[in-house]
Design goal:
Layout lengths: L2 H6 L3 H11 L6 E3 L6 E2 L2 E2 L6 E3 H12 L6 H5 L2 H16 L3 H24 L2 H29 L25 E3 L2 E3 L9 H16 L7 H16 L3 H15 L4 H17 L10 H4 L2 H19 L33 H27 L4 H13 L5 H4 L1 H12 L2
Antiparallel strand pairs: 1-4, 2-3, 5-6
Helix pairs in contact: 2-3, 2-7, 3-6, 5-6, 5-14, 6-17, 7-9, 8-9, 8-10, 8-15, 10-15, 11-15, 13-14
């Protein structure tokens, strides 16, 4: 029986699970604007408590099938359970309690969704169905991205298509890149930034590469389309993520090459914490992608000095980071540190940072038995060293816990 036939025979529980997987890119939500959501008179979207459709779907699913989560699996997640406890205390003492507790609740439900996967979904047995559903969703995202690239703006302009945000060249803060000497807006799909689209696609591309041997035209067409949109995202770090991911896939059995790449990822991850101390390199100092990240990490260390043990609160880093930034070379936008691990340190303190690192590294060790999942985690580790979206944005966060669920 082929995969499409199996999908048609899913029971309600599996149907709802795969529906959540299919709908993970959706960006529809209800925003609660608060006085505290403004910093210096500017609305900061990270400080706006929001309930997304994804949150409702996951919460509904977990409430119905909570008894399917095995306690034995929960007991194995001591690092993340303790991490949640630290996040709770950090939110409790934060000046931004409401946004902190909104984030905590989302984190808990996504964690329980991860536990449901660990308890009920076998990666080996259901990989084909999981991939097919995910690839169909990504295929539609890529089609949307093509039209965005051609139009150089959003297609629907009303958030109705999976929550596509309205934008064009006149939109404040829109990402404009140099494309062979021409100013171009990379596609956003339904995400907040082309880098998020590129990062997700760089991981999905590796998954697609493992399916090319199957005699299905859809997989081949999807691979070409994802490769093309990944290129058009103009996300340099996503390109690197895809490149070393493909190398790890190709040279899986070559001990020297495989471990050299893994070592390089760990070295890069370690160096990402020391960006403020990398100075005097003219070829880097002139690059906005470098000095913005360096300034944000530098500001993060200043915040940490005053909030060492429990941080400033979940999602609250954007309320503080601007205070310690050096004189700007351009207009200022309050952003979290462009490093997932540093963001955890700033927002939850030393305890949260150590527990999250232990959870992530223990997941890497467990993933050693499955090369594809190991590659995905290494890609997330790399991308998380240069950006924050895997923890700060709901769609990549759900995608992250989806991957953790199979490990």
């Amino acid at each position: 029986m082929n995969t499409f036939s199996k999908l048609r025979k899913l029971n309600l529980e599996r149907f709802l699970f795969y529906f959540i997987v299919f709908m993970f890119p959706i960006n529809l939500g209800y925003h609660f604007l608060l006085v505290s959501s403004y910093v210096g008179g500017i609305l900061i979207d990270y400080l706006v408590p929001t309930i997304f459709v994804n949150d409702i779907m996951v919460a509904f699913f977990i409430i119905i099938y909570r008894k399917k989560i095995k306690k034995t699996e929960l007991y194995k997640q001591k690092y993340f359970i303790w991490f949640l406890s630290v996040v709770f205390f950090s939110a409790l003492i934060s000046s931004y309690k409401i946004v902190g507790f909104f984030y905590l609740i989302r984190l808990i439900f996504y964690f329980l969704f991860m536990m449901y996967i660990k308890s009920n979904i076998s990666f080996q047995n259901e990989k084909n169905k999981v991939f097919l559903v995910l690839f169909i969703s990504v295929f539609l995202l890529c089609i949307l991205s093509i039209f965005q690239w051609l139009k150089q703006g959003s297609v629907f302009d009303n958030y109705l298509f999976f929550g596509e945000q309205p934008y064009n060249f006149a939109t404040r803060g829109i990402n404009v890149e140099n494309f062979f000497g021409i100013s171009k807006i990379p596609p956003y799909a339904t995400f907040r930034h082309p880098n998020i689209l590129g990062g997700i696609l760089s991981i999905v591309l590796i998954w697609l590469a493992t399916m090319l041997k199957k005699d299905k035209l859809f997989y081949k067409l999807c691979f070409i389309l994802v490769f093309a949109i990944l290129f058009l995202s103009l996300s340099f770090f996503s390109w690197i993520s895809a490149f070393f991911g493909l190398l790890l896939l190709i040279f899986n059995k070559n001990f020297i090459i495989k471990n050299s790449i893994i070592l390089a990822v760990f070295i890069f991850w370690t160096c990402s914490f020391f960006l403020p101390y990398i100075e005097g390199l003219s070829f880097l100092d002139s690059k906005p992608s470098f000095y913005r990240r360096r300034d944000l990490i530098s500001s993060s260390y200043e915040i940490i000095k005053n909030n060492f043990w429990f941080g400033v609160g979940p999602q609250a880093s954007t309320a503080y980071v601007d205070r310690y930034l050096p004189p700007s070379k351009e207009f200022r936008i309050s952003q979290p540190p462009h490093n997932v691990f540093m963001m955890v340190f700033v927002e939850t303190g030393m305890f949260g940072f150590l527990l999250f690192i232990l959870f992530f590294l223990s997941s890497l060790i467990k993933a050693k038995t499955n090369n594809l999942l190991l590659i995905s985690l290494l890609q997330i580790m790399f991308l998380g060293s240069v950006d924050h979206y895997f923890l700060s944005i709901h769609q990549p966060l759900l995608f992250l816990f989806f991957i953790f669920g199979f490990i």
